[in-house]
Request: fold
Amino acid sequence: MSKRYPIPAGESRIELQVKNSRFIGRAGYTPSVEAAKAFIEKIKNEEPGASHAVYAFAVGHGATVTHGMSDAGEPSGTAGKPALAVVKGSNLGDVAVVIIRHFGGTKLGTGGLVKAYTETAQLALAELPVTEKIEYQSGQITIPYSLYEQVKRLVEAYDGQIEAEDFAVEVTLKLTFTEDNYPGFEADVAELSNGQVTMQRL
Reply:
C-alpha cells in the first residue's frame, strides 16, 4: 500500500474582512496531534487580542486519520465544523487550520459565521504550498562481488540510495528506497541472484 499523500510544505496566512470582523486564516504542517496543538498555541500567541481562535486539523491521511476541531466559543457548529469540512475536502494530510476572529461589533448570524469560517479556511488552504509525503524503507543485502555492478545499476533504476557499503568477503550494502519502489527492487535482486540474495528490512 502506498503511503504517499499531499501535505503542507510550509505555512500560509490570509485575512478576510466580513462586516467589520477580521478573520485571519493560518494553516501549517502538523504531523502529529501534539504538533497540531503546538501550532494552535503558537498562532494564538502570534495573533493577540483575538476574540476566538477556531481550529480544525487532520493528522494522517485516508483510513488512518485523526481529526480535531474547536468552535472556540462560537455558536456550536458555526466554526470548527465548517473549517473541518474544508480540511476533509482538501485531501491534505498532516494539516491544521487556525482561524482567528477579531470581532468588529456586527453580529454575523449563524449562516454568516459558517460562510465566513468556510471561506477563511478555504483561502488559507489555497495559499498553502503543498508537497508529497513519501514513506521510505531501508534494507540491507550481502552480495558477491560478481553482482556488485549489476546491483548498483538496479539501485539507480529504482531511485534508491546507497547509505553504506561494507567490502569484506562479500559486499554488504545498506539501501533506502521509497516504500513504493522497495518491493520491485527486492524482487529484481532475488531474480538477478537466482534467489540467493534476499533483502533484510531494517
Summary: The longest strand covers residues 52-61. The chain has a mean pLDDT of 93. The chain has two domains: 5-132, 135-201. The radius of gyration is 24 Å.
